[in-house]
Specification:
A hairpin with a 2-residue loop joins strand 1 and strand 2. The chain is an alpha/beta fold and 377 residues long. It has 11 helices and 15 strands. The two termini are 29 Å apart. The structure holds adenosine-5'-triphosphate (ATP). Adenosine-5'-triphosphate binds next to helix 1.
């Protein structure tokens, strides 16, 4: 799918914008604070009904105005669909084919985007919780059973942690109820670990292909699921369940002392390895950025498998952190495959010559000027 055109009315620093895009690569070029990220954000809001930068929708409305409107025409296999998001002081409205949707959740899924912003580097450099959230959100989006298991697991975990805290104050500790909770936790936990391992294998396959393309096969990217469970990848769900039950039993004393559950997938992590070495510890800035990019871009292929259509890719200021070789191969990898919007303060010569006829827009204080094709170097 691709975004044919976009209209913005009183959105951030855009008063009145009407623009048509290329189905291939669109470059948004401009100095700092001109509205590059605002434009990507508008496309993201058109997809997700909310911003990736703020939870406060009112920030999206141009200062001194009362409502912001985003309209887009999305080209899909079955035809073109007009979409609209309106934001005002009372809330939001979402329209598909000019018809207002009763719920925002009904709207989501009409137009799929994948956004890569500088903050996504946390996927590699950040704490394990960032990677768990990524896996849970991405996998949850494409697998309803996983989302269900996760919901159940979280509820039981909360209950179990509360009970562990209660046990701290009891002289005669009755562990029967704790055993019941441990049993339930182990059952959902085992399934979650099993499903995560399958999902990560799929993601690893695509992420490694991208890493190899971007680095010209200099780097092989592999994933390692870090868990206290032994040989997790070779275990059946029943075996994982038995192990988890056992680990919870062994940890009971410590768990009561600390008032929290010490074993289970809520403490697991994913490690990204380049040529066998953990990129979080040993990777250069460029390698870490490429890894985060490959992992995130791998979602494009998973989404295609799931929905039958490629999503639209939004890359916020990604080029400047990569050397010429990585830039070149990244652009080669994505061109002719997905519609891409790419913001950058300056376009290096190499990117200009290598992209197949990109549409280049110069952004200046909320105004867009399209560069004529013949002016491209
Ligand atoms: N609600 C709003 N109304 C009007 N202007 C706004 C609003 N919100 C933000 N702005 C303005 O938008 C500009 C920032 O735009 P944006 O974040 O898109 O910058 P950018 O071009 O991506 O810059 P950088 O390269 O620094 O990331 C700032 O000048 C800011 O004052």
């Amino acid at each position: 799918m691709y975004l044919e055109s976009l209209t913005l009315r009183d959105y951030r620093n855009y008063e009145d914008l009407n623009v048509s895009f290329s189905p291939a690569i669109n470059i948004l070029l401009g100095e700092n604070a001109q509205g590059k990220t605002n434009l990507l954000e508008a496309i993201y809001v058109l997809s997700m009904t909310r911003s990736h930068r703020t939870n406060n929708d009112k920030e999206l409305i141009k200062w001194d105005k009362t409502a912001a409107i985003i309209q887009g025409r999305v080209n899909k296999q079955l035809g073109t669909v007009p979409l609209e998001i309106q934001v005002n002081s009372k809330g939001k409205k979402a329209k598909v084919n000019h018809l207002e949707q009763a719920k925002l959740s009904q709207y989501i899924g009409q137009f799929n985007v994948i956004l890569f912003a500088p903050e996504d580097l946390a996927l590699v450099k950040g704490a394990p919780a960032v990677r768990r959230r990524f896996v849970d959100m991405e996998f949850g989006q494409i697998n309803a059973r996983y989302l269900y298991n996760l919901g159940q697991y979280r509820t039981i975990l909360k209950q179990r942690n509360q009970y562990l805290k209660q046990l701290q104050h009891k002289k005669n500790q009755d562990l029967v109820f704790l055993d019941v909770l441990s049993d339930q936790l182990a059952a959902f936990g085992a399934e979650i670990v099993h499903q995560r391992l399958i999902f990560l294998k799929q993601l690893e396959f695509w992420a490694n292909q991208l890493q190899e393309e971007i680095t010209q096969s200099a780097e092989t990217l592999t994933f390692e699921y870090a868990t206290h469970l032994e040989d997790a990848a070779d275990q059946t769900i029943e075996q994982l369940y038995a192990q988890l039950q056992n680990d919870l039993k062994k940890a009971t004393k410590k768990e009561i002392f600390q008032g929290t559950t010490l074993a289970g997938p809520h403490r697991d992590d994913v490690r990204f390895l380049i040529n066998g070495k953990n990129v979080q510890t040993y990777g250069s800035q460029g390698q870490q950025r490429t890894t985060a990019l490959s992992v995130k871009l791998a979602e494009i292929e998973l989404m295609k498998e799931e929905t039958g259509e490629y999503p639209v890719l939004l890359l916020d200021d990604v080029l400047s952190e990569l050397d010429d070789m990585r830039q070149t191969h990244l652009l080669k990898t994505i061109q002719n495959k997905v519609q891409t919007f790419l913001t950058t303060p300056n376009l290096s010569g190499i990117a200009r010559t290598l992209i197949n006829e990109p549409k280049i827009f110069h952004i200046n204080q909320g105004n867009l000027l399209e560069e004529e094709e013949h002016t491209v170097d």
